[in-house]
Amino acid sequence: KAGVTQTPRYLIKTRGQQVTLSCSPISGHRSVSWYQQTPGQGLQFLFEYFSETQRNKGNFPGRFSGRQFSNSRSEMNVSTLELGDSALYLCASSSGQDTGELFFGEGSRLTVL
Amino acid sequence: EDQVTQSPEALRLQEGESSSLNCSYTVSGLRGLFWYRQDPGKGPEFLFTLYSAGEEKEKERLKATLTKKESFLHITAPKPEDSATYLCAVQAASGGSYIPTFGRGTSLIVHP
Questions:
Q1: Sheet strands (E) in B67-112
Q2: Cα B33 vs. chain centroid, distance in angstroms?
Q3: Chain B closest CA to A80's CA: distance in Å?
Q4: Between B87, B99, B101, which is nearest A56 by CB?
């Protein structure tokens, strides 16, 4: 059974640019969550999608957005990048039955210069 | 607001030297407490779920326990391959959102 796949694994952007990250969940999983991980703040919840609908949203500015497609694949977008957006962005999938047992991808490492 | 505090932030052990990691939590009704392991440059890997005080789970050299206010991850006779960051997360039973709140983790290094 394939795990959660995130692309790209590494990327470098400059301030003001935008970035799109992709996540393919485990087959059969309908819930996809996104997290930002930094050394100073730890794992911070961005948003969660289930059946193409955003069910929960964390405390991040509107520059952070996401969506989910009918095949459960998800993308997140960050516009007008700031230096502080440099982080590891993690996608996690679950069966969606309100479980806290998450299956994470290896993450996308974003560096903003 | 749900809070999770993990201690110590970092722990260095010699191979075979048993120890415990702590996860203290504040949550309005606990639905579940989760332990994850994260290796450098990778995403967290699920280890255990604990649901009620007194519950224990074991996996190889790891044993997780739960009380009403905290959880411990006991590591017995650790090996260098146990080196990783261990994350604790809690899920509230009420409030509508079941999104887990994560602690900042304990970085464990086991020296051979």
A1: 70-75, 84-92, 101-102, 106-111
A2: 8
A3: 25
A4: B99
